[in-house]
Task: structure prediction
Amino acid sequence: MNLTLKIWRQKNAGTKGKFEKYKLTDISTESSFLEMLDVLNEKLINENQEPIAFDHDCREGICGTCGLYINGRPHGPEKGTTTCQLHMRKFKDGDVITIEPWRAKAFPIVRDLIVDRSAFDLILQAGGYTSVNTGNAPDANSIPIPKLDSDRAFESAACIGCGACVATCKNASAMLFVSAKVSHLALLPQGRIEAAERVQKMVAKMDELGFGNCTNTYACEMECPKNISVSNIARMNREFIKAKIFAEVPTAVETGD
Amino acid sequence: MYSSITKKVIMSLMGLFLITFLLVHLSLNLTLIISSSKDTFNLAAHFMGTNPVVKVLEVVLFGGFIIHIFWGIVLFFQNWAARPHSYAVWNHSQETFFSKYMIHTGALILAFLAIHLLDFWYKSRFSGGMPITQIDGIKYDDMGQLVLDKFKSPAYCSLYVIFLIFMGFHLDHAFQSALQSLGINHSKYTPFFKKFSRFLAVVITIGYISIPIVIYFIL
Ligand code: FES
Result:
């Protein structure tokens, strides 16, 4: 198939970027979106031009590194699919495809289509630790957990932190990501120990980093490559409200001040 | 500064409070077109204008409006600032429709509120010149007549109908979104709440719109 690509090119965070047009011919419908970009980069290198910088790692849809804004949608038109798992058969011969990086204040552009998502890492860091016993590995199923809870926790833990939720949210809010991370621990007894502290710290960090506020447009849930549900956001709101109202605050003696 | 979730909780609590107000206001207004005389409506209007408890609630209500509007605007600007560079191609198809326009429909409702308060609330309380009616030998302000006169103008009627439709759009997102912000999302009840949210929006909107329409065409 033949394609016209409009790709965002930007040298670094400090410079102004612009769209460049590229024409590609004879692309196999069986190739993945990233393979199609590989072909283009190969061509650019042969022509002594700067190849297009884009993020990718596993190319199996499990690491969350890839992420392109394709024709107005994160990870392209296919539901529940990462960019690396998107195939060219989802496009038509002669299509014009616009490719942009994630756009959010909290995700500054590094180069071309690569953005810096370390804001997500900072939120995870702010969440802190979980208390577990050290020593021998515990017996499996030594702590009974309702099946539904463990299923829900597992579904929340499927978040790969790609940032598509932030990218698609009209408010550039990170609520789906943060709520998935809060949920997968809050749902399990092992995660309950620090739950109140964790949710408050992660939300505070998220706000500090300049993500927008959730207005329940639910676009994130529709675009998430891992189909993370917005019920996680409600759960996080619940956890947060509960923590703000009921969590004890340490006395001066307890904090050591 | 409040956290993003706290702001949303404030928005939703105030929003739910304003929805209850809309229901009370609507039921009082409907007496004007349902009952055969304006007396019920005028007595209700008199009660709402003079009862000390209602007067306190009125201040609370204005507070509710101001808080809801203030935080709505703050959220809008923060959210706008969270994406300094917007996309060249942006396919909004995955968002729920009315959630995209809450600030716009909200601004229209605010404009409507200003017109509405000026024409009825301000006039009856402060500017004087109200028509007078007698019920059981006692004189009352004829609020009902004021309403009837206003809605005999086709332009004024259409203005109300249009603004009220936009209020309906705002409400369609409002109720279920408020619950979500408050953390109320449940596999059993949320599908019902979403339908109920739309039902509420439709009922409130049709209820309010019926008043100018009935006055114009029937009364
Ligand atoms: S490259 Fe790992 S998820 Fe796409």
Observations:
- The interface with chain A takes residues 3-9, 75, 78-79, 81-96, 99-100, 102, 173, 176-177, 180-185, 187, 190 of chain B (CB under 8 Å).
- Residues 4-80+100-217 of chain B form a domain with the 3 helical TM bundles of succinate and fumarate reductases fold (CATH 1.20.1300.10).
- Helices of chain B lie at 4-34, 39-50, 52-81, 102-127, 143-150, 154-181, 190-217.
